[in-house]
Here is the input.
Amino acid sequence: MIKVLLAVAAGGALGSCLRFLTSYWVVANWPRHFYLGTLLVNLVGCFAIGFLSAWFLLRSDLPLPLRTGLLAGVLGGLTTFSSFSLELLKLLEGGQVPLALAYLLGSVGGGLLAAWCGMSLARW
Here is the structure.
């Protein structure tokens, strides 16, 4: 159990750093579009979790710490629907309702589509 916990902790640190660096880069380059960093990591994370979860079903020989460290650790640290919620509220409070709705639909619909694509690719 301690190996799994350490793998999740290390993966979570990596995922969180990747999320921070992505958001930092987006804000530095497109400050008006601050939400795109979160959208990007959520879509990539949804695709990756769909792919890996399906692939791991075919590769049960891979060590549990590796599988859990990637799914719960890296992807849990990378994706961030709490930040998504806050940013969506900021857009709504700023009166940017059409952009907020596009962000909502792009994140949720795009995330579901990306997860399905990842699972389909892994099963193919």
